[in-house]
């Protein structure tokens, strides 16, 4: 028998998740009834469905009852239903969930309540706040959250880790730029969340709404309260489409698109293919944004297609950026400017998109001149690629964990929260002043995994983050300038090629190797080329 059965009394036992193959052993051990307290799909596709288990149990002559209980506070009616089952079911009974803790808590509450509903409710709060249930709670199931969970479990397989993530899909966002250029299949950029959640982690499919770091608790949008010993904050960055007036109503039509959304990247390619003449505007909002090179990458790849199609001379290309420079690391500006000139693109700095009239095809910008005076300008367009403003998620921004900008406040080298020693943060939601890219998260994962365990085990930190980030700048279809850099714009190349020279090899890495490493390495706890330096 693969599961570990714990006998609580002569009539009742609990265990962790059981498999279909375990049922015959349960029958052989003399159990007459099984209660499943684990909701279906809680652990992803690796978790057997209750209907499969029930069919096998019936074949073995065992009564099977599905009584799911989500992690967090247990509703009174679930306790009462459990009480009723313990009266009616043939004994002995085996109840299971992922670890057996919920089943044991239900049994204890039912035993103590004696039918008194008020006492039941009190016991729910006391017995099931799960304050000590999770060693680590991870907020976010993106690249940072899945990656750090996998790395932690690879180091310490016995850790009890919960991932709080509402979405049922996981995206590989770095490829959306390629999708918008017809160079990548959109279907290859998404997988069911259950397929990427590490097998030994708990997936709580809900949204975090409130942090209570003094009590080591997180409140969810469904009212549950989840406790932790250590917390990892990595919910990503929020794309604030609503900050641009009129944008949401016209996205996906009227020639308005964005590679920053899964459903819109294919529309970008549709527009680019059909575009033969007119005005094409590409925008970039104020920092911070994820993948700061993506706005201009959309421009380069579109222009390259138009150049190859022989129609670029009929297209007026403009890049409006709220920033004062083309790219934040000066070494990469000269090679990028060569492509700006090749594509005859007009650069407009300090120009921020604030409104879109899709029906009339007019984009409105606030442009700051050399004296700091802001002027408003309306620009007609035929194609508009928008990069949305971005900000920390509201529940983080409004929490005790946030700095003045709304991001999770950390020591930029250790990624430990500056006020709460048992909290760490990484990815786009942390305050470290690095480029917000998947490549940065890949390096940060190793730092957080190492330092979190060091804090847990009262050891000195030995992993320090150098600000590494990478931006594969797709300057044309088939060539990439691979910008790798750390804090202060220091170049941190991984490969021996000159980083400022466009390379076919880097295109191959961007299109083929990096996605494979992401799905098969980074999300699996394999820290290839990710280890940080070991000292300050």
The major beta sheet can be summarized as: 5 strands, mixed
pLDDT averaged residue by residue: 92
Q: What portion of residues is helical?
A: 25-40%
Terminal-residue CA separation: 49 Å
Task: Look at the structure and name the CATH superfamily of the largest domain.
Answer: FAD/NAD(P)-binding domain
Report the uncertain regions. Answer: 115-132
CATH topology of the largest domain: FAD/NAD(P)-binding domain
How many domains?
Answer: 3
* Count of DSSP H/I helices: 15
Strand order of the largest sheet: 1-2-5-3-4
Number of strands: 27
Find the structural class using helix and strand composition. alpha/beta
The dominant shape is elongated
CATH architecture of the largest domain: 3-Layer(bba) Sandwich
Radius of gyration: 27 Å
Organism: Nitrosomonas ureae
GO molecular function: FAD binding; hydrolase activity; quinone binding; sulfide:quinone oxidoreductase activity
Domain Beta-lactamase hydrolase-like protein phosphatase-like: 8-110
Domain FAD/NAD(P)-binding: 134-254
Which helices and strands occur, and which strands form pairs?
Elements: E1 6-9, E2 12-15, H1 23-28, E3 33-36, H2 50-59, E4 63-66, H3 76-88, E5 93-96, H4 101-113, H5 117-127, E6 136-139, H6 143-155, E7 161-164, E8 169-171, H7 176-179, E9 190-192, H8 193-196, E10 202-204, E11 208-212, E12 217-220, E13 225-227, E14 230-233, E15 238-239, H9 247-250, E16 256-257, H10 265-274, E17 278-284, H11 294-309, E18 315-321, H12 333-342, E19 346-348, E20 351-357, E21 362-368, E22 374-380, E23 383-385, E24 390-391, H13 394-397, E25 423-425, H14 438-456, E26 469-476, E27 479-485, H15 504-520
Parallel strand pairs: 2-5, 3-4, 3-5, 6-7, 6-14, 7-10, 14-25, 16-23, 17-18, 17-23, 18-19
Antiparallel strand pairs: 1-2, 8-9, 11-12, 12-13, 15-24, 20-21, 21-22, 26-27
Helix pairs in contact: 3-4, 4-5, 6-14
